[in-house]
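Below is how a single chain appears once it has passed through the pipeline. First comes the sequence as given, then the structure the pipeline wrote out for it. We keep one example in the README because the format questions we get most often are answered faster by looking than by reading.
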Amino acid sequence: MVDNKFQPKPEDKFTFGLWTLGNPGRDPFGPPTRTPPTPVEIVHILSEIGAYGVNLHDDDLIPLGTGAAERDRIVAEFKKALADTGLKVPMATTNLFSDPAFKDGAYTANDPAVRAYALQKTIRSIELGVDLGAKVYVFWGGREGTESDATKSPLDALKRMREAINFLSDYVRDQGYDLKFALEPKPNEPRGDIYFPNVGAMLGFIATLDHPEMIGVNPEMAHEHMGGLNFLHAVAQAWDAGKLFHIDLNDQNYARYDQDYRFAAQTLKQSFYLVKFLEDVGYAGSRHFDAHAYRTEDVSGVKDFAVGCMRSYLILKEKGKQFNADKEIQDLLAEVNSGADKFAWLAGGYSKDKVKQLLGQEFDRVALGARALHYERLDQLTTELILGVR
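Resulting structure:
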């Protein structure tokens, strides 16, 4: 029996991309295994299972080469589905990676005509996103990289990327749109190496842009795990910088190809810490699932996948509340963080008086090294809480 306590509701702000439920089960070694639902059908499925919204690439909704009249018909039907269900479109993005024109990248391609076409396609996609109500626009540079550094100067690529984002930022500002950009890092795949491979690299790049205040990051769990990194730490760094504009939730074995598993399907403890962090700091954005159902599934299995993503988040949210209320866990945390009052005078930044006091302080180095922190106990209690035996 399904526990209704974890029934997703629109106020949970769960979103999925058209490309997620619309994935046909194709992989590099085999053709599609299912006929995906249409965009309108996806909207109704998401509404039925309690999602808040649906996100999209331009090509997810309007296939490349579609004429103006057909485009208008498609958009009108999609808008009607949104109106009928109440689903929102919080985020939109541009597909700059599928078409062969982008085989050498989009904004960083060596061919200036490709770079110009990428800007044109993005502007038209921004217009679509704004028309549908999007407030966040994501940039994932899936082809912005190389297989051989003989082919492209990384300095040229950085300059081209900066010029593109600055150009598009100025366009959005000139139009007066209420839209923020979120840049999404990934270390590799489909390119051998992708520029800006992780959250830290993106944050460094954002600081060099003309309008950094309107540009943040869209970290993805699988992408950081592909590089063997700790996703929680990446998200915390983005939050601390005021740049967590959007987030992609899924799951992934470490150091593998981009698997895009159902959220919390693989790294349960990492998923727990992530959910707890987002809820503890009060992250108010969408909880977006950029994942795919197994290739084994039919459309009903795709629905099971989507429900599973949301239920896992809600279950881990509840576990986070239990963690915060668990007296033994909180006592251990208080113990390992004790002693702060003695050094409260160090807070508030540098002063000459503080340096004088610090240099006069006596420290028992041996006692500091001998202090037990009981992290084994703390970690085991956390494990038992997640597994449901506390």
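Residues 220 and 248 are 4 Å apart (CA to CA).

See the next section for the split statistics.
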